[in-house]
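Marked as duplicate of an earlier ticket. Keeping the data here for the record.
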Amino acid sequence: MPGMAGLMRSMSEPPAYSPPPIWTWAKPSGGRFAEINRPTAGATHERQLPVGRHPLQLYSLATPNGVKVTVMLEELLALGHAGAEYDAWLVRINDGEQFGSGFVAVNPNSKIPALVDRSGAEPVRIFESGAILLYLAEKFGGAFVPPAGERARAECLSWLFWQMGAAPFLGGGFGHFYAYAPEKIEYAIDRYAMETKRQLDVLDRRLAEVPYLAGDDYTIADIAVWPWYGTLAKGQLYGAGEFLQVHEYKSVVRWTDEIAKRPAVKRGRMVNRTWGQPSSQLHERHAASDFETKTQDKLQGGAA
């Protein structure tokens, strides 16, 4: 009978996928983002970007990549850099706003965050979160980056670019197949769960040795890594805390909790946020006072 059971099971299973010689986009890919995924670049519609009164114009959403930049800007303001004042405009990526003509002109890759620096004679566009962090650090006197020639600078840049290379395995790999794919594929989830846990172990071993990733000081490496791996370590990413047993990475949890206490981090993670408690959502940020007066709980209360 086991042979019959196996036969029945094989008859009920769909045939294995055999890739054609040439791939064509014949149907939606399925999953949470099927409506906006496509194999071509460029704008899909005309839509100009708004421009506020501050030197820096940010177009973003409070995903981990977006939070990196708003935390950095709030940290710069906390240091007294008035030139870091910014307008943060919400880009609803689930609605395809990143494919508007104005956004594509700032970031041809159609990904948030994107920044325009209007403080000079000509606007300067900066896209990719790591590039934005480095640009802002250099613009404001090397803030949150150790001086050139120091060992800590090499560590800072190494961990910064580690995050750029590692996070796609966490987000596009594990996060997609665990949380967003139209069907659960054991091989894919196991493959990327293994890699995600390996990455957490890499961080845990480093943070068992030093307070911050570059050494004794908080840098853009921490600002880049924390929104992804700090959120993961608290079980707040993809609902996968128990599955990945994230509490086991005690040094990552210690580092995560310490960074979360920083006032600039608390503010930065609120900007362009459209989920969670209304008091944690500041859809747009145009002034420091917005944190007190423009969060969704305040706006909804005023409308009631």
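See parent ticket for discussion. The chain is about 45% helix and 5% strand.
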